[in-house]
TrEMBL record:
The keyword ATP-binding does not apply. Keywords: Membrane, Transmembrane, Transmembrane helix, Transport. Pfam families: BPD_transp_1. This is Amino acid ABC transporter permease. Belongs to the binding-protein-dependent transport system permease family. CDD domains: TM_PBP2. Residues 58-243 form the ABC transmembrane type-1 domain. The chain crosses the membrane at residues 12-37, 57-83, 103-125, 220-239. It comes from Lentzea rhizosphaerae. The keyword Transmembrane applies.
Amino acid sequence: MFDVPGPRFRRRVFWVSVVSVFVLAGLLALGLRQFAANGQLDPVRWRPYLTWPVWRYLLSGLWSTAAAACATGVLAMAGGLLLALRPNRFTRAYAEVMRTVPVLLLVYVMLFVLPSFGVNLPLFWKLVVPLALSHAASYAVIFRTGVGSVDPGQREAGLSLGMPDGVVTRFVVLPQAVRHMTPLLVTQAVSLLKDTSLGYVVSYTELLFNGRVLANYNGLLIQTFIVVAFVYLVVNLALSRLAHRLEAARARTAR
């Protein structure tokens, strides 16, 4: 789709990257200096995060985050697959609308609107259902792209053998499409995992909620949220690294 970058463009990208690194390093140094001036880097303020009870509490929140992310992922992928394999006006409109509606708005609908109609789900599902409804639209686009990337001759070959269209889709097209989609599915999981932080709105005890409670308890607001951000960073970087490895493996297989 794009031409290979030439030497001039590569040099430009290199110098822009160098300048960006220096700017970010300067901002980081300025932030650390400001923290030090206000005593936020004193060892006594970080000592609680070297103890197991604090980490056990945060890891329990991470476990709840993982549980919500897994449940959301299963429901969203199932819904996205259904939307992708049933292309019509409704499914296309649903995918377009739900990709533009803020997830927080859906959470508020689940929290404040539905209970007035007698639908009052447990806290876990008040978080999972809105996330699944939103991410199903994104997964539908991924599945549709993956199915479209399969050579049409594969479907035609299956149909020529007398296989029903549904059987061809399930056993011929989808297995090949999944190999193409796997890196995108993992990347989408990163976005999904971050959205579980909205659990604090419904008082679901995920990682960010536990971090807020811990900060209110020990008064170490900055330190707590830096540690929570570090946990999110490690998990999301691991998922991103997995996506890159899967993409590299798929590229080697395609050769």
